[in-house]
Write a structure and sequence with these properties.
Bound molecules: nicotinamide-adenine-dinucleotide
Radius of gyration: 23 Å
Length: 436
Amino acid sequence: MKIAMVGSGYVGLVSGACFADFGHDVVCIDKDQAKIDKLHDGEMPIYEPGLAELVGTNVKSGRLTFSTDLAEAIKGAKAVFIAVGTPSRRGDGHADLSYVHAVARELGAALSGDTVVVNKSTVPVGTGDEVERILGDSGTAHKFAVVSNPEFLREGAAIGDFKRPDRIVIGAEDDFGREVMREVYRPLFLNESPILFTSRRSAELIKYAANAFLATKITFINEMADLCEKVGADVQDVARGIGSDNRIGPKFLHAGPGYGGSCFPKDTLALLKTAEDYESPVRIVEAVVKTNDSRKRAMGRKVIEALGGQDAARGKKVALLGLTFKPNTDDMRDSPAIAVAQTLIDAGAKVAAYDPEGMEQARPLMPQVTMCGDPYEAIEGADAIAIVTEWDVFRALDLGRVKELANAPVLVDLRNIYQPEDVRAAGFEYDSIGRG
Ligand SMILES: NC(=O)c1ccc[n+]([C@@H]2O[C@H](COP(=O)([O-])OP(=O)(O)OC[C@H]3O[C@@H](n4cnc5c(N)ncnc54)[C@H](O)[C@@H]3O)[C@@H](O)[C@H]2O)c1
């Protein structure tokens, strides 16, 4: 089947490459000429493990192509996916649907055959209805169906998640939509991945409910970690103790500096907005958003404490290890590192940082931070070292060398990747999240 993917970012490019790998004929479209030029040159516009190889193989086989010309590229496509961004709208937190609507308008003018338009972007309930209205208003003579197929992949593990999903959610209102989607995902049917057919509105809400639930789980364990610090308990043990209950589950119980990234912050806000619009409050999510927002700067203050407090922090040097919101991505959107760095800079500290993949995206977001070539360069002369993202490269630092290079052996582990006793035995002052 020919599939067109409109939007070739983290979701569109990974999904397009995986569909091509399943044997479909895929064109990935983007309006960003530079992105498409890079892809034509065999370069990846984003960092995602395994993506360059997957794209390379499928381009070679002729099943994966790239284009900036939507009208030409969608010719003959039975399914056209919308995978463009839906960032927070400035001012009110509502999802900005202007990119989705713009694509719908372009599609309305360009449909050249019966087509299923599939919304893969994360969009508020009712967006599918609006896309259907836009297509209808275009006066197209072709049959179309609008389907919601939210994406649950995680950056850093995106290919595995796409190919072996926990579930596939398809919100369709008619048989045409359902049949085409069955064909699109047939290889995964054969893999026995559970496919959930729902109404379009249910599918749209499932995505927000899932992200809000996960954000809640993270925020819950973060607050437990704070309580652990006060009462002298260890959050790692508490997480293990509750997570081994099957009703709770062990995942998303890692205490840290607060959730960030391209999805949870904007999706929780958009859910609040939907709840407000429908006068159906989601108070738990309101609390989660508030708690998480204040946590990021609190993490900066934790590092300031390790430096000896506000007065002592002025002029001191802090090494930040890790900038991206999680490892194995270059995505800096809403990363806690941004607030941590800003809090330190506001206190008059100097900040040097190293991240294996995120520094290019980080530079414009934190112009006062000195970017370094490796962790040890950042650590040289530092009065405190803070691990902000749990990249593997930070798990086995040469603590002897760190101690020699640093001005003071002070380690603030915002991801709990070290054992307190090991670090203390190496002669460091050690602070962590909720480990007493
Ligand atoms: N990144 C994730 O981990 C993830 C996971 C699940 C769902 N999502 C959702 O998927 C959607 C896309 O997210 P992303 O991270 O891939 O975004 P992204 O910003 O990486 O990519 C979006 C792409 O769409 C392109 N685009 C915008 N308007 C266009 C148009 N009219 N025609 C062609 N291309 C256009 C942009 O140039 C950009 O390359 C969002 O709604 C997001 O919430 C993201």
